[in-house]
Design goal:
The chain is of the alpha/beta class. The chain has three helices and ten strands; from the N terminus they run βββαβαβββββαβ. It holds the Pfam family Exo_endo_phos.
Length: 173
């Protein structure tokens, strides 16, 4: 895990993680973050198992990559106790896709949502537990161009407010 702080905004970067315990150095009390490449959630049984595991781990802010779900299937994730579900799907096929799920037990107010057309990233600005935050979820398929990263991080720099939490699967070593 890499953590870096800047004068404004503050950055909290999560590099290809599975599950982290509650983070005490964030300005939030007891928020558990999880980032997971699920490699497809089209199968309802797999979807249920993944959500059951996340609930068992008491995950509260969840970053999913490679969901491979169309819009209507992403909506179904709300039924599992994540009314604050934000997602970006690749509209031309069941590839890629990212989602940010926020448990019902966590107070969140969305101010802005930014995404691309390829289902590679999702940026959400809002208030998490009444504190300004920018949540970014990135899926960079193998072979992604450096210019894609540059454009994305320019966007994050331009759009971010408050604490910035970047999570995802960057497919880099």
């Amino acid at each position: 895990m890499v953590v870096g702080q800047m004068s404004r905004p503050q950055f909290f970067v999560v590099w290809r993680i599975t599950i982290y315990n509650r983070v005490d150095y964030m300005p939030f009390n007891n928020i558990k973050l999880v980032s997971l490449n699920v490699n497809g959630l089209n199968n309802p049984i797999k979807r249920s198992k993944v959500v059951t595991k996340l609930k068992k781990e008491k995950a509260q802010v969840i970053f999913l990559q490679e969901t491979h779900l169309p819009q209507q299937e992403h909506e179904k994730l709300k039924r599992f106790g994540y009314k604050n579900t934000y997602y970006n799907s690749y509209r031309q096929s069941q590839k890629r896709g990212v989602a940010i799920l926020i448990a019902n037990s966590v107070q969140f107010e969305c101010h802005k949502e930014v995404s691309d057309k390829e289902g590679r990233y999702l940026l959400i600005k809002g208030k998490l537990e009444n504190k300004l935050v920018t949540l970014v979820n990135i899926y960079a398929p193998p072979g992604s161009k450096k210019s894609d990263y540059k454009d994305l991080f320019n966007l994050v720099t331009q759009e971010s407010e408050g604490l910035v939490i970047c999570a995802g699967d960057y497919n880099v070593v």
